[in-house]
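Changelog-adjacent note: as of this version, every example in the card shows the full chain rather than a window. The one below runs 96 residues end to end.
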Amino acid sequence: MTLSALATELAVAAETATRGLDKALPSADVVILGNLAAAHLQGGDVDQGIHIARESADAASARPNNTVGTARAHQIGDRLPAGERQLADQIRSLVT
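Full-length structure tokens:
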């Protein structure tokens, strides 16, 4: 199995799990999505990484008390392509 296929399989599993997260764990989905976005970007699956980074940013924005963490936000922002600077800045702005 290639890294891209594995990353896609993990993304599907994580999205399924994220949808089922209990509301008692409101920050978990932001963390999971942030980790997935970083993994996709690191693995070279930029399109999927951008898609998941947007989901992570939206989830974090909807829950202002939750963030993806400073190191993770910078890791995601640094790996986004130049055309996604606005998204990178949005993600970085979510860290406290």
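Structural remarks: The radius of gyration is 13 Å.
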